[in-house]
Specification:
The protein is α+β, with helices and mostly antiparallel strands. It has one domain. Helix content is about 45%, strand content about 20%. The chain contains 6 helices and 8 strands. It has helices at about 1-25, 35-40, 60-85, 90-100, 145-150, 170-184; strands at about 30-35, 45, 110, 115, 120-125, 125-135, 150-160, 165. A 4-stranded antiparallel beta sheet has the order 1-3-4-5. Strands 2-8-7-6 form a 4-stranded antiparallel beta sheet. Strand 3 and strand 4 (about 115) form a beta hairpin. Helix 3 (about 60-85) packs antiparallel against helix 4.
Length: about 180
């Protein structure tokens, strides 16, 4: 049982590391949308925070934080293996924290090969459909800011977990819709 949990924990660390490295590599590709400062301000990953550019310099804090989290998980794994510890919270707590740490990259960008969203890169082939949901009084993002109250939530269904972002202008919605219709 202990070997199984150690193996599972190692696979989780490897998965998060792989996803992080792929996102860093894809950040080097040509970004199609958003490019201008105005376009960056019209797309949000979180309702109250504006996006940062898809560059290493703009994402520096997120890269450092995510790297430290990976090193922390790897250190816990090595300590657990060396000490022979088998305490379930010892394994589960860092993994649960890490699943939400992917949003430290305040990033949403379209490239020729797919979409960068946080630390995830989703190729066009893995996307099934998309829809724009109007943000009204019954929407979970209503009330965060005036810009998001009159905007849309873009939900992209993928082979895995869905990806979403907030669009604050009608022009950006139409631009995204034209581009996504070509790709999906």
């Amino acid at each position: 049982m202990k070997i199984l949990f150690n193996l599972l924990f190692f696979v989780v660390i490897a998965y998060f590391s792989y996803r992080f490295i792929v996102a860093l590599i894809k950040m080097k590709q040509k970004i199609i949308l958003p490019i201008s400062e105005n376009e960056i301000n019209e797309i949000r990953k979180h309702p109250h925070k504006k996006l940062k550019k898809a560059t290493y310099r703009a994402q520096k804090v997120g890269i450092i934080f995510y790297t430290c989290m990976l090193l922390f998980l790897f250190t816990i794994f090595i300590i657990g293996m060396y000490e022979g510890l088998f305490i379930l919270p010892f394994y589960l707590l860092p993994v649960l924290i890490f699943t939400y740490a992917s949003d430290v990259f305040n990033l949403f960008a379209l490239t020729n090969e797919g979409i960068l969203s946080g630390t995830r890169f989703i190729p066009w082939e893995k996307m099934k459909s998309f829809q724009f949901i109007e943000i009204d009084m019954n929407h979970k993002f209503y009330g965060y800011s005036k810009e998001t109250n009159s905007g849309y939530e873009l939900k992209i269904k993928t082979a895995g977990f869905p990806v979403s972002c907030i669009i604050t202008s009608e022009e950006m919605k139409e631009q995204l819709q034209r581009y996504l219709n070509k790709k999906i």
